[in-house]
Amino acid sequence: MLTLSPELQERLATPLKIGDFEVKSRVLQSPLSGVTDLVFRRLVRRYAPDSMMYTEMVNATGLHYVKQLPRIMEIDPNERPISIQLFDCRPNFLAEAAQKAVAEGADTVDINMGCPVNKITKNGGGSSLLRDPENAEAIVRAVVDAVDVPVTVKTRIGWTDKEINILEFAKRMEDAGAKMITVHGRTRSQGYTGPAKWEWIRRVKEVLSIPVIGNGDIFSVEAAVRCLEETGADGVMCSRGTLGYPFLVGEVDYFLKTGVEKIPPTPIELLECAKEHLRALWEYKGESGVSQARKHLTWYAKGFPGAAELRGVLAVVETVEQGCDSIDRAIEQLPAV
């Protein structure tokens, strides 16, 4: 039976304080490119009403050259607490983008210093900033000076196993004015492979006074609790564990607050959620929403008889009706619970 230690219970008993902003949950939904749009966040929010949500990461340079804000910055006034995540390597562009994010309604501004994707790092953004701590520090200072909401950072433990510099890097971010740091326990070279090195999250927590959020390999309530116990982190951020499973943040949050594990959704409930996700993306984005929904639908189709065959069908759906009909046929083959 999963339990919380008395020490962890005491640590989690108060709201998460990010500067002068309070969040009534220690579980956060990670920003995920191509995933955490308004539709996805609404699904997560249904089960985790108190948790901090993050937009997809926004290119500050691109934002500088457009008159109309991109749709990925769109925020529902009712979805607070909400943070807009930005990426770039230019302090002045990030400061300008942060001001636009606050005007759009962001409660905090998060700076991405952890994305491992080549098209981001080759231009000096994301995890490449781990190799340029002076510029990373200048970015945080510029953004802190530009806005009146807390500024946070999401990063990794280093560029490679031989270049793990997270302790010095995190301290510089705190000294520059960051009010919280999320540490993904992998290097850039790891990408998303191999186990997350949670011990580095613990070491970061030992040297900082601002909140430290643990990230990496949080695929279950048990993993979230183990991460919190092992690292002493102030909270956890769920990332890939929420793909096709928008229930996870709420499940973790509920357990941390009550000590009771929620009954997980049945395969039928998962597939009904998939249909809702598809319809909502269609309503929000039209035909492009259906195209984007394909990956989400395949993520939902797992863990039940016929899931593999269904994934193949859902990966090529072209209309809402086709997707819903395919899911309905799969539901008819499942035993009622």
How would you explain this protein's 3D organization?
With 337 residues, the protein is α/β, with parallel strands linked by helices. The chain has 14 helices and 11 strands. Strands 3, 4, 5, 6, 7, 8, 9, 10 and 11 form a 9-stranded parallel sheet that branches. The radius of gyration is 20 Å and the shape is globular.
Q: Poorly predicted ranges (pLDDT <50, ≥5 residues)?
A: none
Percent strand: 5-15%
- The class by helix and strand makeup works out as alpha/beta
Overall 3D shape = globular
State the end-to-end CA separation: 24 Å
Q: In angstroms, what is the radius of gyration?
A: 20 Å
Q: What does the average pLDDT come to?
A: 95
Helix content bin = 40-55%
Q: What profile does the largest beta sheet have? A: 9 strands, parallel
Number of helices, where a helix is a run of at least 4 consecutive DSSP H or I residues: 14
N-to-C series of helices and strands? HEEEHEEHEHEHHEHEHEHEHHHHH
Count every beta strand, where a strand is a DSSP E run of 2 or more residues: 11
In short:
This protein is α/β, with parallel strands linked by helices and 337 residues long. It contains 14 helices and 11 strands. The longest helix is centred in the last third of the chain and has 19 residues.
Features:
337 residues, alpha/beta, two-stranded antiparallel sheet, globular
Question: What is the topology?
Answer:
Blueprint: H1 6-12, E1 16-18, E2 21-23, E3 27-29, H2 38-47, E4 53-54, E5 58-59, H3 60-64, E6 82-87, H4 91-104, E7 108-113, H5 118-121, H6 133-146, E8 151-158, H7 166-176, E9 180-187, H8 198-207, E10 212-215, H9 221-231, E11 235-238, H10 248-258, H11 267-285, H12 287-300, H13 307-314, H14 320-332
Parallel strand pairs: 3-11, 4-6, 5-6, 6-7, 7-8, 8-9, 9-10, 10-11
Antiparallel strand pairs: 1-2
Helix pairs in contact: 2-10, 4-6, 6-7, 7-8, 9-10, 11-12, 11-14, 12-13, 13-14
